[in-house]
Write a structure and sequence with these properties.
The protein has helices at residues 36-46, 60-67, 87-100, 120-130, 195-206, 226-240; strands spanning 6-9, 30-31, 34-35, 51-56, 76-81, 106-111, 114-116, 134-140, 149-152, 158-162, 171-180, 211-215, 220-222, 250-251, 256-258, 261-262, 267-268, 273-275, 278-279, 284-285, 290-292, 294-298, 309-311, 314-318. It is α/β, with parallel strands linked by helices and 324 residues long. It folds into 2 domains: 6-222, Alpha-Beta Complex (Spore Coat Polysaccharide Biosynthesis Protein SpsA, Chain A); 245-318, no CATH class. The strands form 7 sheets. The protein has a 7-stranded mixed sheet with strand order 5-4-1-6-11-8-12, with helices on both faces. Helix 2 (60-67) links the parallel strand 4 (51-56) and strand 5 (76-81). The longest helix has 15 residues, at 226-240. The chain is globular and about 65 Å long.
């Protein structure tokens, strides 16, 4: 059976993931040594979703450099360029010509910053049964204090969305959905617009069966903050074998590097100690320096934000900053 195309959302600024996104697009951040965009693209291709579009805005070259035309993971990748960034509804609207040029009216949308093992065939089947414009993949909300929720009717349709901290029972959207192109076509091209924040409530108001729910117990990993990124990297390292340290890194023999992700072109000096850190591209950790649970990038001429600090030539942010 011919698979519909997939749009992978990779244009976002990744502000919660800073300072790592000062260096790379969020979807180019490595999880156990493999950039998120490559992981998502390979997962889709392995399940037959070969035709893929990625939208680009922030640090686009960091994504195109690692994924290219997708042939390395068995995909056929094209790119939808955004200026300005167009959001979770405006991005799909702008990409419609690429997604529908072969006659497709239906496509997947996959967030480029989440990893899941959801059953894509079951999702497509649920969408066909529901006859909805949108079918969102959901799991029971694991952390209502952290995540906003999705309210679902007894017959399996989305009735609305709740803010994080709400007392109502809700489900969590895991960044995967099947949509009909006509849900986005009425939007103005090139104008920023949000799905959950604006388009989907409007669709539900017009027809309560516009947005369906696909509820499962799928695993998912959200790469929202540096802490999330390291936690997910350590999980995959335990499953795949550790690729946390890039081959180009230079680490002094007596340096201590524990449960730490080390990116490209990093130098770690003699006697340095790093425990549960993420060390970004081009960082030089001086001999004898010690960091624990921190995200570290070159400072350059950057002025630190409120929860960041400058140490020598490094910009440092606590790993758990922004987690709530």
């Amino acid at each position: 059976m011919r698979r519909p195309p997939a749009l992978v959302l990779t244009a976002g600024l990744g502000t919660r993931l800073r300072p790592l996104t000062y260096l790379r697009a969020k979807a180019a951040v490595p999880v156990n040594g493999q950039p998120l965009a490559v992981r998502v693209s390979a997962w889709l291709a392995a399940h037959g979703f070969v035709r893929q579009v990625l939208n680009l805005h922030h640090h686009p070259a960091t994504i195109t450099a690692v994924l290219g035309d997708g042939s390395g993971v068995g995909a056929e990748v094209r790119y939808s360029w955004e200026q300005p960034v167009l959001g979770s509804a405006g991005g799909p609207r702008h990409a419609l010509p690429l997604l529908t040029d072969a006659g497709d009216e239906r496509f997947l949308i996959v967030n480029g910053d989440t990893l899941t093992d959801a059953d894509l065939d079951a999702l497509l089947a649920a969408h066909a049964r529901a006859r909805a414009l949108v079918t969102m993949a959901l799991v029971p909300n694991p952390a209502p204090h952290k995540y906003g929720g999705v309210a679902v009717s007894g017959d399996g349709y989305v009735t609305g969305f709740t803010r994080r901290g709400a007392a109502l029972d809700s489900y969590h959207f895991i960044g995967l959905q099947v949509v009909e192109s006509r849900a986005f076509a009425p939007l103005a091209d090139g104008v920023p617009a949000e799905s959950v924040g604006a388009l989907y409530p409007s669709l539900i108001a017009q027809d309560p069966r516009s947005v369906a729910a696909f509820i499962s117990d799928a695993a998912f990993h959200d790469i929202g903050t540096p802490g999330d990124c390291l936690r997910t990297s350590l999980h995959y390292a335990s499953v795949e074998g550790s690729r946390l340290v890039a081959p180009s890194a230079r680490i002094a023999p007596d340096a201590t590097v524990e449960r730490t992700a080390v990116w490209d072109d990093v130098t770690i000096g003699a006697g340095a100690r790093l425990v549960e850190c993420i060390v970004g591209d081009g960082v030089h950790i001086p001999g004898g320096a010690s960091f624990e649970r921190a995200a570290i990038v070159p400072a350059g001429a950057r002025t630190p934000a409120g929860d960041e600090r400058i140490e020598r030539d490094l910009l440092v942010r606590p790993l758990d900053a922004g987690s709530r």
